[in-house]
Write a structure and sequence with these properties.
The complex is a heterodimer of chains A (563) and B (312).
Chain A: H1 6-11, E1 15-23, E2 32-39, E3 44-49, H2 55-63, H3 65-68, E4 73-80, E5 83-84, H4 90-93, E6 97-100, H5 113-124, H6 128-141, H7 157-169, E7 175-179, H8 187-204, E8 207-211, H9 215-218, E9 224-229, E10 232-237, H10 239-249, H11 256-264, H12 273-281, H13 284-287, E11 304-317, E12 320-333, E13 337-342, H14 348-355, E14 363-367, E15 372-375, H15 388-391, H16 394-403, H17 419-431, E16 443-447, H18 455-470, E17 474-478, H19 482-488, E18 491-496, E19 499-505, H20 506-509, H21 519-524, H22 532-562
Parallel strand pairs in A: 3-8, 3-9, 6-7, 7-8, 13-17, 13-18, 15-16, 16-17
Antiparallel strand pairs in A: 1-2, 1-4, 4-5, 9-10, 11-12, 11-14, 18-19
Helix pairs in contact in A: 5-6, 5-7, 11-22, 16-17
Chain B: H1 13-16, H2 19-35, H3 39-55, H4 59-83, E1 90-97, E2 101-106, H5 107-133, H6 136-143, H7 148-177, H8 187-211, H9 231-251, E3 256-257, E4 263-264, H10 268-280, H11 299-302
Antiparallel strand pairs in B: 1-2, 3-4
The chains are: A alpha/beta (563), B mainly alpha (312).
Chain lengths: 563, 312
């Protein structure tokens, strides 16, 4: 395989940014403001920060899309392996930089997977034999050889993401830029991807710059964290120092394990599950833990909002129909907050779409006596007009806006709203007219609502879900985000290949496994303990228990000595 | 929702053939459809294309093309019957119509419309089989040295079509999910939203092409040309079809007259040409191996067909 710019690769930093300020063509303020950053070859750096803080723009500048593709005003210098990224375009940089954007659907340009992965090599002029070998190797590395002959438009989101990554890696670039690569992946695939990146970093010496919101997933794999705030770099250092910085400056960036340690006053803050377990294991007061008393979930008296009996749904993928739901039995009651989880392709979205009447079951019964309001994965699809009030006219529209707390934005343009507000507006559009007075529909369903959201916005969504449930609606949320599920759900339904494989109280389901378990549950391995707050309480109990036992032992030994 | 006309990699001979061979084969049958007016020959051409499509595994594409083709044919028959009043066999006199004048429905005008419609349906089936069985990546790859910018535009468009189709499906779903009190979404706002979204998508797809090095002037790899061992079969079939069609035309196999009375020639030449055309539809049929292999081979490598990703 050829390696473009080999001499430059070893001599120069993988990425050197100096005093970079950039403003998009129509923006009033710069997206990047005096950013300086240097990544050495072989580093694995994590780019953290809240939504719209400039992470994606920084990645685009590093691969040449900014300013060559997006236009705008730019100052400063960007060099990739010694090549001036501002002077030359992304096409020339493609030999040394691999870039993977957030949306995998627009990142495939060929018809079949093999052709897609082969394209960059063909453009570079590699020989046929060399191309075939590179495609085979990258497919094996990403565990996708079975997809090579598939048409790209028959792939799931997770599969597409892997294919896009394979196309970025196939030229063996020295720098890989990834913008939330796990946003559409289930916890299993997300973890696998992060450790695959770590392996590529260690074995191939590839420099990695990864922008991600779910820091708990990738902090342990990173050598360094760069945190951004309003277009500038607010922190740059090792992961452990980053956690200390986040504790002081922005708690929304803390990982759950670090939050647990902060609450308990334990030092040092852990960068991952193994680190946390090791620290706790050295402290005897945490070693002999007591189990928190397992509470039984309250039995719901509200009438059922959704009843599915022996539900089978068949969908055509390509020309071959397959059963996506296989005899699902499910009952949800009013006021319940339920997380619907499972691997990519397990049937979560299909269940929601069947409930909303977008797909017809081939067998079984669905009963929704109070109706349903479904918010699909892309809230923007609901917004077609240029004024909020035009989307939701009349008193019924205003009532729906009130439910989501947007009554003040009647005259706003939906495009001027923040991402979270747009999502709430889309939910209001789905709710409008389905409420009787202030009474919500029986079931409010949300499909993957946290894609690309930072933790602060997720907390707003948790509050909104709580508000909806308090008004007697059953809230069903399909999500891959385990920590988010732990934050809002009282019950978790786990789907596996179209079948309900677990259904129980959230603390039980989210602490009973490895992948579909919160970071705190993986650290402590105490059944029923899934959030930092619960865990801190448990550890305090443990500490008290250990202390009282130590004091009791001491008193006994004193008595024995006296006797 | 996937379009039935979208290319689907399958282990068929038509898919394995080089784009040139596939285009020659399907193009020869399309040429016959344009060259001939004899309903017998047109039906035979249609049967050949349906056979070819079904053997190649493009059943959904053929079904959709037939449905669309016959709908269009019906429309042509109705319009032709209303517009043309020639012919001896008057079935109905509908009197004076505004714009049309005196409207007489004749059997001959219906037959003439049916032949036009049949031709349109046959051509649609040919394009459907092409679309579902010929890998556009290989076509674009073949075109790229000849016209780089056109190939880039074609790549962009060919990728944007399924992306726009997926966007449209999502927007339709979202429109169905709007609450009854939300402002209804008509076709115009939906189309506007789709257009705006498509422009954003086009920018994203173009950015991806740029990042894959599509704009590079690097020397293209001089790999082996995209050929298959089955090419000869398709080129030979195309040559035989074109030769027979030309000979048939000269020998009067296209005997058909709509006016003043419908006359369909059933000469031996016409029937022989029809039989040959139907047989040409079997070209993508895989021959059974003469002897069963004595070992269990890896189906991906030992298949009679080359891998769908193309270069053989």
């Amino acid at each position: 395989m050829q390696f473009a710019g080999v001499t430059a690769v070893h001599a120069a930093p993988a990425l050197a940014i100096d005093g970079l300020t950039y403003r998009y063509p129509t923006a009033s303020r710069p997206a990047l403001d005096d950013v300086s950053l240097c990544l050495r070859p072989g580093e694995f750096a994590l780019l953290a920060g809240r939504s719209a803080c400039g992470k994606s723009t920084l990645l685009r500048a590093a691969c040449g899309l900014v300013p060559h593709f997006h236009g705008g005003e730019i100052e400063g210098a960007v060099e990739v392996t010694g090549i001036d990224a501002i002077a030359i375009g992304p096409g020339e940089l493609a030999a040394v930089v691999g870039y993977m954007a957030q949306d995998p659907e627009t990142q495939v340009v060929s018809t079949t997977v093999a052709a897609e992965i082969e394209l960059p090599l063909e453009m570079r002029g590699d020989a046929q034999a060399s191309r075939a070998r590179a495609v085979e190797e990258v497919a094996l590395a990403l565990a996708i050889p079975h997809l090579l002959d598939r048409a790209v438009d028959t792939l799931s989101g997770g599969e597409l993401q892997r294919v896009a990554l394979a196309a970025s890696l196939v030229t063996r670039p020295s720098l890989i830029l990834l913008d939330e690569p796990t946003s559409q992946l289930d916890p299993v695939a997300g973890d696998e991807l992060i450790w695959l990146l770590r392996r590529l970093n260690e074995e191939w010496g590839v420099t990695i710059l990864l922008a991600e919101h779910r820091l708990e997933r990738c902090l342990a794999a990173a050598d360094r964290v760069v945190a951004m705030e309003s277009g500038s770099i607010a922190f740059d250092g090792p992961p452990r120092s980053f956690l200390a910085w986040a504790q002081q400056n922005d708690q929304a960036l803390e990982t759950p394990a670090a939050r647990l340690f902060s609450l308990c006053g334990i030092e040092p803050l852990p960068v991952g599950v193994r680190d946390a377990r090791r620290t706790l294991a050295t402290d005897p007061s945490f070693r002999d833990g007591v189990l928190q008393e397992k509470g039984t979930p309250p039995r719901r008296q509200d009438p059922p909002a959704l009843t599915a009996r022996a539900l089978w749904v068949e969908l055509a993928r390509g020309e071959t129909p397959r059963d996506v739901l296989k005899g699902v039995d499910l009952k949800l009651h009013g006021g319940e907050r339920v997380a619907l989880m499972g691997r990519n392709g397990a049937g979560k979205s299909t269940l929601l779409r069947a409930a909303a009447g977008l797909v017809d079951p081939v067998h079984g019964k669905l009963d929704l006596p109070g109706g349903i309001a479904l918010l699909t994965q892309n809230p923007g699809d609901y917004l077609v007009r240029e004024r909020v009030g035009d989307e939701l006219p009349g008193e019924a529209g205003l009532a729906a806006l009130r439910v989501v707390g947007l009554e003040h934005a009647v005259d706003a343009d939906p495009r001027d709203l923040s991402g979270g507000e747009r999502q709430r507006l889309a939910l209001a559009i789905a709710l409008a007219g389905r409420m009787e007075g202030n009474e919500l529909p029986g079931l409010v369903a949300l499909d993957e609502p946290t894609r690309g959201m930072d933790r602060a916005r997720k907390q707003d969504l948790v509050d909104l879900i709580g508000n909806l449930a308090d008004r007697s609606a059953a809230v069903l949320v399909a999500t891959h985000d385990v920590e988010f599920a732990a934050g809002f759900a009282e019950r978790v339904v786990l789907l596996g290949d179209g079948v309900v494989i677990a259904d129980g109280p959230a603390p039980e389901v989210l602490s009973g496994g490895w992948y579909f378990a919160t970071e705190v549950a993986r650290v402590l391995d105490i059944p029923g303990v899934i959030t930092p707050e619960q865990a801190a309480e448990t550890l305090r109990l443990n500490a008290d228990f250990a202390l009282s036992r130590a004091m009791r032992d001491k008193r006994r030994s004193q008595r024995r000595e006296e006797g | 929702m996937r379009s039935p006309f979208a290319y689907m990699p399958r282990p068929g001979l038509l898919q394995a053939a080089s784009p040139g061979a596939a285009v020659a084969y399907l193009g020869s049958l399309t040429v016959v459809a344009f060259l001939y007016s004899s309903p017998i020959v047109l039906i035979a051409t249609g049967v050949a294309l349906v056979l070819a499509g079904r053997i190649a595994g493009a059943r959904a594409a053929v079904r959709a093309a037939l449905w669309m083709g016959f709908t269009l044919a019906l429309l042509i028959v109705v319009v032709n019957a209303l517009v043309v009043s020639r012919g001896d066999t008057v079935l109905a006199r509908l009197g004076e119509w505004p714009l049309f004048g005196q409207v007489d429905i004749t059997a001959e005008a219906i037959a003439a419309g049916a032949v036009l419609g049949l031709r349109a349906a046959v051509v649609m089936v040919a394009f459907a089989v092409y679309s579902a069985c010929v890998d556009p990546d290989r076509v674009l790859r073949a075109l790229r040295p000849l016209a780089g910018r056109s190939a880039l535009t074609a790549t962009l468009v060919s990728r944007l079509v399924p992306v726009a189709a997926a966007d449209a499906a999502r927007l339709r779903d979202a429109a169905r999910l709007r609450g009854p009190a939300a402002a209804p979404v008509g076709r115009a706002p939906l189309a506007r939203r789709l257009l705006a979204g498509s422009l954003d998508r086009a920018v994203d797809v173009a950015a991806t092409l740029e990042l894959r090095g599509y704009s590079l002037d690097a020397p293209r790899a001089r790999g082996r040309r995209s050929r298959s061992r089955h090419d000869r079969r398709f080129y030979a079939t195309a040559a035989v079809v074109l030769a027979a069609a030309t000979a048939g035309k000269l020998l009067g196999a296209d005997a058909f007259a709509e006016y003043p009375a419908v006359e369909i020639g059933t000469s031996p030449q016409t029937l022989a040409l029809a039989a040959l055309l139907i047989l040409s539809g079997l070209a993508p049929l895989r021959r059974k191996p003469r002897r069963a292999p004595s070992f269990t081979a890896n189906p991906r490598t030992a298949s009679n067909s080359p891998p769908a990703r193309g270069i053989i």
